[in-house]
Amino acid sequence: MKTPFSVVLAAVCLLPTLLLGGCSQAKPDIKAEAPPAANVEPDLNANNFQVEHADLFPLATATERKAVPALNVTGLVQPDIARAVPVISLASGRVVEIDARLGDVVKKGQLLLKVRSNDISGAYQSYLKAMNDERLARVQLERAQILSDKGAIARSALEAAQNAEQDAQVDLNAALELLRTMGVDKDHPSAVVEIRAPISGVITDQQVTNAAGVQGLGATNPFTVSDLSYVWIVCDVYENDLDAVHIGEYADIRLNAYPNRLFRGRIDNILPILDPNIHTAKVRIEVPNPGLMRIGMFVAATFYGKQPVVRSLIPAAAILHLHDRDWVYTPLGDGHFKRQEVVTGNTLPGNTQEVISGLKAGDQVVSNALALQNTVEQ
Fold it and tell me: CB of 268 within 8 A of CB of 232?
């Protein structure tokens, strides 16, 4: 049976429509199938916190305080070199007796040690010879004076006798002074020399023991006596801080051994040579010693500037010590607080804390930073 032509024609006309319709249904809608747009929120500052019941954390207002700038350094107690006197022996010999030792407090003229010396016999023999020569010269001068009065000798002979007597007297005085310097009594000579303290003070060095040898005017001195009524505080000050230190000004001194005692000393010298490794200069402070300062003690010295600076003042409890730094909490509103780093200064009476930077007068802080920190960490 043959298909009518009209039916075939209708099928042919319908085919493009079906093909177009099938293609349009297979193509996806990109906009319809895409995911919804993401809502990106910025991360909160790690130092910003929100707490409930913010009224439980009272605020304090920073006030203004004018303060003298201070520089804190460390130092050592050292003896005043000008007040350290070596004990010397003018005679060489062997030590037979020691009457003092390292660390003893001695008075001027106190016996320190005795030395047996052969130099004494030589000095005493020189004294006896000078005394005999002076006696002979004096007798000759008297004889020449008598002969000159009678016209028996020339005037020049009398003058020669006078000159010889004067020279003999000079030699005698020199020999006698040497005995006195060695501590020898000319009327009771002894081979033992007594060495005494030249000043009152403390024996800060000892280089002699019993039976040891001593060299006259040698490089090594048996003792060193130091007057410790005044001592030096020698501090290291960094190059960048030298503008805060001036000769003639005063500094506060605190000993580590006596932290509650305050001493004052005058800046005596700033050495002109810097340490090449750490770039510090030695600053020397002269301090009266009431007897508490010992050589080698550690001290803390504070130098003060001339022009006052403005600092903020807040309660000490408002400071939070965290990760080796100091922080405060400042309010942001609606229960939000910001943890802000500050640089603190001195702790003052009344449980207040000086703030060098990070705050200004009028800023508000949480009066108890530790309580807020504990709440944040929960």
Answer: yes
